[in-house]
Specification:
13 helices, binds adenosine-5'-triphosphate
Length: about 450
C-alpha cells in the first residue's frame, strides 16, 4: 500500500462539499465570491479548533477572555492607523483587465499580472481594505462605521475595563475569538483568504523592557500549541519578518506548507506600546498601568499572537488528508483508494459511528440506544444505509476514529465489533465494557 498526501487543493474542496464540511456561500444563487459556509461537519470541526485555542489561552491564570462587538466607535480606527494606513496597492492589468495586488505579484522587481504575465499595468492605487457601513437610518458621513478588520482593537480599548474588573496585574493577557472583515483585492485559495473570516487573537500586556523575553516565551508557547495539534513537522515553520510594521519591534509568522505554497497562518508580534499610546491620545483617557509593588507608572508593551481560525482549520484539513492506495488486484488497472481524514480524535467532527449490519429492528434499537448514550459524552453518529464497506469508507472520509458494528450475534453475546480507522483492526467488545474501551482507544489513538 502506498500513501499519498494532498497535492491539489481542489481535491479537498470537493471532499469538503461532498461530505458537508464547507459549501460555497449562496450557492443556489451562483455563489458569492470568497464567502464560504461551514456545513454540519465543518461547523463542528471549526468549533473544536476554536475550543482548543480558547482553552489553551483562557485556562491560564494570566489570561482572560473577551467578546467585543464588531462595530466600534469610528475613532478607534483613526487611532489604530487603519483609516489612514490599512490599504493595499491595487493595479489593473491593461492587457487582460485582471485586478490584483501590486506588492504580492513582483517578478524580478516588476509588477506582473498573475493571469497573463503582462507587465503592462496601471499605476498602483492605495485601496483601503475596511468595509464601511452606516449606523442608523441616515446614510451620511457622520453615520459611517466600519466592520472591524481585526479583533485586536476590541481588546486594546477594553484594557482598562478588564484590568480593573478582573484585578489583573501585569503581565496578563486578553484573548478573543471573533469575525473580522477585509475587503481583500484578491481573495482566494478556498478559505485561505476571504473577505469575512474569524480571528483568534491574544494580546499580552507586559512591562516595557520585558517584552523581548515575553516575545520569545510566546513563540515557544505557540510552537507547543501547534505541536499538540499534531501538524506534520516538516509542514510548519516559524519565519521572522524581513520588514517590520512601523509599530512593531519584532514579528514572526507561523507558516504552513499548503498545496499552493508556504503561507502565513499566524503572526506573533511585539507591538511595543503603540496601540495603548494611540488610544490614550485619541480618547483622552489615561491608559497607564500603575505597578503598586514598584510604585511606577507605564504604558504596557503588547506581545500579540494572531491566528486566523479559518486558515488554521484549512491547514489542519490539508494536513490530515491522505489516500491509501492498494496495489491493483489481478487483471485490474488500478488499485483501490481509501481516503482518510486522519484527525486526532478530539478534532474529528464525529468520534464514533454506530452501524447496524442489518435494518432489522432489534439491531436498530441497540444501535440507536448506544448512539444516544455515547452522544452524552462525544459526537456520535448512526448510519444504517448502504453496505458496511461503503459506510466504513464514508466514515473514513470524514475522519471518524471508531466505528461500531452491531450484528445478529450481538443479540446473543451482547458484544459489538469496534473498528479502528487507521489500523483497520477490529475488536469484539462487550457492550457493558464499551465506554471504557472507547475512552482508552480515543486517548491512545
Ligand atoms: P496576510 O499577509 O495573509 O494578508 P496579515 O499579515 O495581514 O495576513 P494579520 O493582520 O496578522 O494578517 O492577521 C492575523 C491572522 O488573521 C493571519 O495570520 C491569518 O491567519 C488571518 N487572516 C488575515 N487576513 C485573512 C483573510 N483575508 N482571510 C482569512 N484569514 C485571514
Amino acid at each position: 500500500m502506498t500513501v499519498k498526501y494532498l497535492e491539489d487543493l481542489s481535491t479537498l474542496v470537493s471532499l469538503c462539499k461532498r461530505r458537508g464540511f464547507i459549501f460555497q456561500s449562496s450557492e443556489i444563487y451562483g455563489g458569492l465570491n470568497s464567502c464560504w459556509d461551514y456545513g454540519p461537519l465543518g461547523a463542528n470541526f471549526k468549533f473544536k479548533v476554536k475550543m482548543s485555542w480558547w482553552k489553551a489561552m483562557t485556562r491560564r491564570q494570566d489570561i482572560v477572555g473577551l467578546d467585543a462587538s464588531i462595530l466600534m466607535h469610528p475613532t478607534v480606527w483613526k487611532a489604530s492607523g487603519h483609516i489612514d494606513g490599512f490599504s493595499d496597492p491595487m493595479v489593473d492589468c491593461k492587457k487582460c483587465r485582471n485586478r490584483f495586488r501590486a506588492d504580492t505579484e513582483l517578478v524580478n522587481g516588476k509588477v506582473t499580472c498573475p493571469k497573463c504575465q503582462s507587465t503592462d499595468v496601471t499605476e498602483a492605487r492605495n485601496f483601503n481594505l475596511m468595509f464601511k457601513t452606516f449606523m442608523g437610518p441616515v446614510e451620511d458621513s457622520s453615520a459611517v462605521v466600519y466592520l472591524r478588520p481585526e479583533t485586536a482593537q476590541g481588546i486594546f480599548v477594553n484594557f482598562e475595563n478588564v484590568a480593573t474588573s478582573m484585578r489583573k496585574k501585569i503581565p496578563f493577557g486578553i484573548a478573543q475569538i471573533g469575525k473580522s472583515f477585509r475587503n481583500e483585492i484578491t481573495p482566494g485559495n478556498f478559505t485561505f483568504r476571504t473577505r469575512e473570516f474569524e480571528q483568534m487573537e491574544m494580546q499580552y500586556f507586559v512591562k516595557p523592557g520585558t517584552d523581548v523575553e515575553w516575545f520569545e516565551k510566546w513563540k515557544n508557547e505557540r510552537r507547543a500549541f501547534f505541536t499538540r495539534l499534531g501538524f506534520k513537522e516538516d509542514k510548519l515553520r516559524f519565519k521572522p519578518h524581513d520588514k517590520l510594521a512601523h509599530y512593531a519591534r519584532a514579528a514572526v509568522d507561523v507558516e504552513y506548507q499548503f498545496p499552493f505554497g508556504w503561507n502565513e497562518i499566524e503572526g506573533i508580534h511585539n507591538r511595543s506600546d503603540f496601540d495603548l499610546t494611540q488610544h490614550q491620545q485619541f480618547s483622552g483617557k489615561k491608559l497607564e498601568y500603575f505597578d503598586e509593588a514598584n510604585k511606577e507608572k507605564y504604558i504596557p508593551y503588547v506581545i500579540e499572537t494572531a491566528v486566523g481560525c479559518d486558515r488554521l482549520a484549512l491547514a489542519m484539513l490539508c494536513d490530515v488528508y491522505r489516500e491509501e492506495v492498494s496495489p491493483p488486484a489481478e487483471g485490474e488497472a488500478s488499485g483501490d483508494v481509501r481516503v482518510v481524514m486522519g484527525f486526532k480524535p478530539e478534532f474529528a467532527p464525529v468520534q464514533i459511528a454506530f452501524l447496524p449490519l442489518s435494518k432489522k429492528p432489534p439491531l436498530q434499537e441497540i444501535g440507536n440506544k448506544l448512539r444516544d448514550d455515547f452522544a452524552l459524552d462525544m459526537d456520535a453518529d448512526y448510519d444504517e444505509t448502504g453496505s458496511i464497506g461503503k459506510r466504513y469508507r464514508r466514515q473514513d472520509e470524514i475522519g471518524t476514529p471508531l466505528c461500531v458494528t452491531i450484528d445478529f450475534e450481538t443479540l446473543e453475546d451482547k458484544k459489538v465489533t469496534v473498528r479502528h480507522r487507521d489500523k483497520m483492526s477490529q475488536d469484539r467488545v462487550a457492550i457493558d465494557q464499551l465506554k471504557n474501551y472507547v475512552q482508552d482507544k480515543l486517548r491512545d489513538f
